[in-house]
């Protein structure tokens, strides 16, 4: 059996704020290649904290996190940044596109931290935009796009480095139901191409499309049985 993409064992995260907050409490989770997992739970339950840990943006206070077989908790910052750039794509609720850059430039900028040579950067960005169905919008500025097109541009940016794992934090939170549907169709396509997808959401129509659901409440994660 191949190594799972994500293996979390007893991961806890405490913030030393006043008062201190236990945002994750002994979370264990295994996600296989090409899994499609939804993480649901109320506001403040620890979803974004979990995504930040999964995305190597934040370190657990304790516990183990293996990504594609590599124990990440002991890695130095540089190695974590490299692993993140090579393996993980991020999609956020608010798109985070640069307003004064065209769509293709926004996608090209994502590769600055990746493993790829400069040569061919534009072609790879154009290919990623084709993959999300935005080949006809590459020269547009973001404010000329619909919300759904903006999110697809952001997904192209997440894909351009060739990640094996896509981490999405409320990706449809700013979209109407029509555009939500289009983004969910795209996730289905990407998954069929072998990508592993983890999506945080509090929308039922989004979590219902995933293959598997886990619920997080006050930092405690529980698998939902279908
Ligand atoms: P969710 O994404 O489910 O809304 P979060 O993961 O953002 O929840 O937050 C979980 C808990 O951790 C909340 O109580 C939040 O206030 C707290 N928290 C998140 N980030 C920090 C931080 N940097 N410092 C202190 N507390 C934090
Ligand atoms: Mg959140």
Features:
226 residues; alpha/beta; Rossmann fold; six-stranded mixed sheet; globular; binds adenosine-5'-diphosphate; binds magnesium ion
Ordered list of secondary-structure elements with their pairings:
Blueprint lengths: L5 E10 L5 E11 L4 E5 L6 H8 L7 E6 L2 E2 L5 H11 E5 L10 H7 L11 H11 L15 H13 L5 E5 L7 H16 L3 E5 L3 H4 L4 E6 L2 E4 L3
Parallel strand pairs: 3-8, 3-9, 6-7, 7-8
Antiparallel strand pairs: 1-2, 1-4, 4-5, 9-10
Bound molecules: adenosine-5'-diphosphate (ADP) and magnesium ion (MG).
Describe, in short, the structure shown.
By secondary structure, the chain is of the alpha/beta class.
Description:
The structure is a single chain. With 226 residues, the protein is α/β, with parallel strands linked by helices. The chain has 7 helices and 10 strands. The chain has helices at 47-54, 77-87, 103-109, 121-131, 147-159, 177-192, 204-207; strands spanning 6-15, 21-31, 36-40, 62-67, 70-71, 88-92, 165-169, 196-200, 212-217, 220-223. The protein has a 6-stranded mixed β-sheet with strand order 6-7-8-3-9-10, with helices on both faces. It has a 4-stranded antiparallel β-sheet with strand order 2-1-4-5, covered by helices on one side. Helix 3 packs across helix 4 (121-131), helix 3 packs parallel to helix 5 and helix 4 (121-131) crosses helix 5. The protein is globular and about 45 Å long. It starts with 5 loop residues before the first strand and ends with a strand. The structure holds adenosine-5'-diphosphate and magnesium ion. Adenosine-5'-diphosphate (ADP) is lined by residues 15, 17, 21, 23, 41, 43-49.
């Amino acid at each position: 059996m191949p190594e799972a993409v994500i293996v979390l064992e007893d991961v806890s995260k405490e913030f030393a704020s006043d008062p201190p907050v236990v945002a994750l409490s002994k979370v264990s989770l295994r996600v296989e290649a090409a899994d499609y997992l939804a993480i649901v739970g109320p506001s403040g339950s620890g979803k974004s904290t979990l995504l930040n840990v999964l995305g190597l943006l934040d370190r657990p206070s304790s516990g183990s996190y293996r990504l594609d077989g590599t124990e990440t908790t002991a890695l130095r910052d540089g190695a974590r940044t490299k692993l993140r750039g090579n393996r993980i794509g991020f999609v956020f609720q608010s798109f985070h596109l640069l307003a004064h850059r065209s769509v293709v430039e926004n996608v090209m900028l994502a590769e600055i931290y990746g493993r790829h040579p400069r040569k061919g950067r534009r072609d790879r960005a154009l290919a990623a935009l084709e993959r999300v169905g935005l080949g006809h919008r590459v020269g547009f500025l973001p404010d000329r796009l619909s919300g759904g097109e903006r999110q697809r541009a952001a997904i192209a940016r997440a894909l351009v480095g060739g990640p094996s794992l896509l981490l999405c934090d409320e990706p449809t939170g700013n979209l109407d139901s029509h555009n939500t549907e289009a983004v969910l169709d795209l996730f289905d396509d990407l998954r069929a191409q072998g990508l592993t997808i983890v999506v945080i959401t509090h929308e039922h129509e989004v979590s219902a499309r995933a293959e598997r659901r886990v619920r997080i409440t006050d930092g405690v994660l529980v698998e939902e049985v279908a």
